[in-house]
Design goal:
Shape: globular
CATH topology of the largest domain: Quinone Oxidoreductase, Chain A, domain 1
Number of helices: 9
Structural class: alpha/beta
Radius of gyration: 19 Å
Number of strands: 17
Helix content: 10-25%
Distance between the termini: 21 Å
Length: 334
């Protein structure tokens, strides 16, 4: 660590709060780059870390894993990135590279995986480090405030949509129309899907209506037709039986969060029989990230963002927790 300090927001010992702090400026280790943060998206997973719904991996960690910035320095053994390059940092920070999952293209399942803003300090700060191999090259001329949500909300939505096995032109239910939900809806719409949205909060329902969803309802409202597939982005286990009940025989329900409250007891005949599939998403691979970012650029996907200055990071987390803001929440750092 350097003797110099930087601005940061850290988790506190008490669940549910982040505190403003002067943190030591990090020094990149061999193979790492130091990134000066321009923008950092606010993710539901950040809330799970802050609220300690996920176990504490690094006490007083700096959250944030949807980072857009420029390379500010490099450690030894960095091969390709140079100072000034625009890069993105996502949730997956490091994997072992040798386990059965890493060697079979499923590094998201690596038991020794490490994650940005949970195992290592993240992007709610002026500077952050990342292994070069886990940094995404980004266009130099793109708006960092609209790029930031792509680094998790977009990538995870892309993987969730792939695992949802939606048939061409199919009917997709989205439970929770927040950052990931509305980006995934745009991606599915570009693929010809018909979108049905069930979500809490008037702001998110208005956003879904503006985006042309075929149906918009509250969390437990029943869509007017059976769904071919559904993705549950909201971290509420009680939604799962409702999503399965709304899905056609042979359909698929995918759970996209890293944390979810307990799923209540289900009836086999009512919820699962008829070859309905229930799947989960566990992080993402770098291949997912690279494929989605190329696709997002090609389709000119642009999330709806609410921007907060760095000083209002705690407020952004509170607004996400309460559902007061719609779309993607982004902190303007630099």
């Amino acid at each position: 660590m350097s003797d110099e300090t930087m601005r940061a927001w850290r988790t506190d010992r008490s669940p549910g709060t982040v505190v403003r702090a002067q943190a030591a400026t990090p020094t990149p280790a061999p193979g790492e780059v130091l990134v000066r943060v321009q923008a950092c998206g606010v993710c539901r997973t950040d809330l799970h870390v802050v609220d300690q719904e996920l176990p504490v991996h690094r006490p007083r960690v700096i959250p944030g894993h949807q980072v857009v910035g420029t390379v500010d320095g490099t450690g030894s053994d960095v091969q390709e990135l140079r100072t000034g390059d625009r890069v993105g940092i996502a949730w997956l920070r490091l994997t072992c590279g040798v386990c059965r999952w890493c060697r079979s293209g499923r590094e998201n399942l690596c038991p020794k995986a490490q994650f940005t803003g949970w195992d290592a300090d993240g992007g709610y700060a002026d500077l952050v480090t990342v292994p070069e191999a886990f940094a995404y090259r980004l266009p130099a001329d793109a708006d960092p405030l609209h790029l930031a949500p792509m680094l998790c909300a977009g990538i995870i939505g892309y993987r969730a949509l792939a695992r949802a096995a939606l048939p061409p032109g199919g009917r997709l239910g989205i439970y929770g129309y927040g950052s990931s939900g509305h980006i995934t809806a745009a991606l599915a719409t570009a693929m010809g899907a018909e979108i049905f949205v069930m979500t809490r909060g008037a702001a998110n329902r208005r956003l879904a209506e503006e985006h042309g969803a075929a149906f918009v309802g509250d969390t437990f409202d029943t869509p007017p037709v059976e769904l071919d597939s559904a993705i549950v982005f909201a971290p509420a286990g009680e939604i799962v039986p409702a999503a399965l009940r709304a899905t056609v025989r042979g359909g698929t329900v995918t759970l996209a969060g890293i944390h979810m409250t307990d799923i209540p007891a289900m009836r086999y005949a009512e919820h699962l029989f008829g070859e309905r599939d229930l799947r989960t998403v566990t992080a993402n691979t770098r291949a997912d990230g690279e494929a989605f970012l190329r696709l997002a650029e090609h389709l000119a996907l642009k999330p709806a963002v609410t921007v907060y200055p760095f000083e209002q990071t705690a407020q952004a987390l509170d607004d996400l927790r309460s559902g007061a803001a719609a779309g993607s929440l982004v902190i303007a750092v630099g």
